[in-house]
Amino acid sequence: MNGSLGNPPLTGIRVLDFGHIVAAPFCTRILADLGADVVKIETNLRKDFAGGTRSTATAKHCEERPPAYHNINRNKRSLTINLKTDLGKALAARMAEMADVLVENFSAGVMDRLGLGHDRLKVKNPRLVFVSMSGYGHKGPRRHWRSMNLNLQAYSGLMMATGNEGDPPLAISNSWNDFVGGLHACFGVLQALTDRNHSGLGAYIDLSQFECSVASIGSLLCAASIDHEGSFRTGNRSTVAAPQGCYRCAGEDKWCVITVEDDAQWQALVGMLGNPSWATEPKLHTLLGRMQSQDEIDAALEQWTSQLQNNEVENLLHTVGVPAERVRHIDEVVESSRNQSVFHAMTYPSGPSRLVAGVPFAFGQRPLASLKPAPLLGEHNRDILRQWIGISEQEITELESQGALQ
Fold this sequence. Notes:
- By secondary structure, the chain is α/β, with parallel strands linked by helices.
- The chain has two domains: 14-216 and 338-401, Rossmann fold; 244-329, formyl-coa transferase, domain 3.
- 37% of the residues lie in helices and 12% in strands.
- It is built from 16 helices and eleven strands.
- The strands form three sheets. A six-stranded parallel sheet has the order 3-2-1-4-5-6, sandwiched between helices.
- It is elongated, with a radius of gyration of 26 Å.
């Protein structure tokens, strides 16, 4: 990590991104946001399910590529290599000799079969931090299992930790496992780079996305290991606060979430309701009593919320210190945040701009990388090859003619 105080923290770090779909590309996107030079290895011969139309470098526009692709591939450069050719494999190996970090999320064994496994690459580049992000890791009885987000949520038990008791298994949407895996991988990369500053050596990080999913429900697993029973599915309720839930408000599909953390907040809520007789019963003066009566509380509470707009419920309860937030649709989140730091405008070459979520932290006075759109397919072939491995224009032309760059 060579960035001076005037540059993003990962300035000077070179990353080879062999990732596809979401998990590995999200990890490398964070590295790119932190200033690393991330080169995305792609090919027009293999579909990337997040890539959509996969606009080529000769296209005039890139906005038609889907939001998922733009979200995880901004701030990167694209290099097309045909890894089915010997020349392509040799070229990728040359790139790896100059890289600080390599990230891939192929199935176990794929990189070894391509001649790009860690054991081979570390001979020429012992400083390389090599990250493998397969579904179940590269060791153990499940190493050859293919995995997708929903499968991992099922096998990790996560689908039985969401929803209400008695409901069918329910997944968390938006590629939960991929983002959790990407975050864990990023932590590993940053630690390995820090260690390298002292040892001079890189590392091999064998990440299991399944284990990342398990880690996200660690408290439930700990409880099960003690009482040897499965967890009770609480839905929107809590084991440490009552009442807690999502309550219908006036209007179509309008809701407000309310959480009562302690007895004082309960009394404040009761006062806001006008001190109805049912709410003053002694058994409701304690958390345990309210938890035992939550069905009745929820029904009465929703009678009140259903007569008010969700922003009214939110504002009224805020005034008395009760945590309450209206449920917003995604477009509302975007619209209300246009002038806040959570979103930034990213301009496309053809002129229009699009709001995107920024990096949710800051480094004091040190800047982060300027936001740039996801690259077109092969957009930076020549620049990357010249800058990373210094090959001539003639050699690039020969690689193109022999099918190594496609």
